[in-house]
Amino acid sequence: MELSVLNIKGEDTGRKVNLSDAIFGLEPNEHAMYLDVKQYLANQRQGTHKSKERNEVAGSTKKIKKQKGTGGARAGSLKSPVFIGGGRVFGPKPRNYSFKLNKKLKEVARLSALSLLAKDNKVALVESFNFEAPKTKEMISLLNNLKTTGKTLVVTPSVNQNVVLSSRNIPKLKVATAADVNTYDLLNTDRLILVEESVNVLENLYSA
């Protein structure tokens, strides 16, 4: 698959880059992508939910009425779950939702997401650029020149602080490095903007 390289003004530079079929031309593995996204979302959960059971609720344990002869059900404590203010039965407790996935499976998921974006013609290739200082206005101008709307993911070859700072106040825009981009971000975008050098980083990472 060949893509034309654009400059920051959105103009064709006349150069083309051949994207490797081993990265952008695979048959997407939907189950691998599902598992990777599921793990990503699970790892974001704090798991700090907690409710009090009857042994944790403050209150007297005195028997509130006699066992028999009242015409109602027997009751031993106001902390019983059947009473208002009582403990909760089998309530949530703090837990860790994270789980492990094989490194190979995560790699398949990431390549599947990249291939899916390429298949849907949602990938744009931009020549390397840098901002002299953090300027949100310059990043907005870049996006407008590339005619980008909706959710956008910009992938850079390495951490560029000025680009990151210029992007953080723009809704629906995320910047990630080629080594750190994940399946969730790739699937949660309408347009993938690859900085030219990031293609080499991806090929070196997944050359095997």
From TrEMBL:
GO CC terms of this entry: ribonucleoprotein complex; ribosome
Keywords noted in UniProt: Ribonucleoprotein, Ribosomal protein, RNA-binding, rRNA-binding
InterPro entries: Ribosomal_uL4, Ribosomal_uL4-like, Ribosomal_uL4_dom_sf
Keyword check for Secreted: no
GO-annotated molecular function: rRNA binding; structural constituent of ribosome
Task of the protein: One of the primary rRNA binding proteins, this protein initially binds near the 5'-end of the 23S rRNA. It is important during the early stages of 50S assembly. It makes multiple contacts with different domains of the 23S rRNA in the assembled 50S subunit and ribosome.
Pfam families to which the protein is assigned, alphabetical: Ribosomal_L4
Subunit and interaction comment: Part of the 50S ribosomal subunit.
Family that this chain belongs to: Belongs to the universal ribosomal protein uL4 family.
Stated name of the protein: Large ribosomal subunit protein uL4
GO BP term (any one): translation
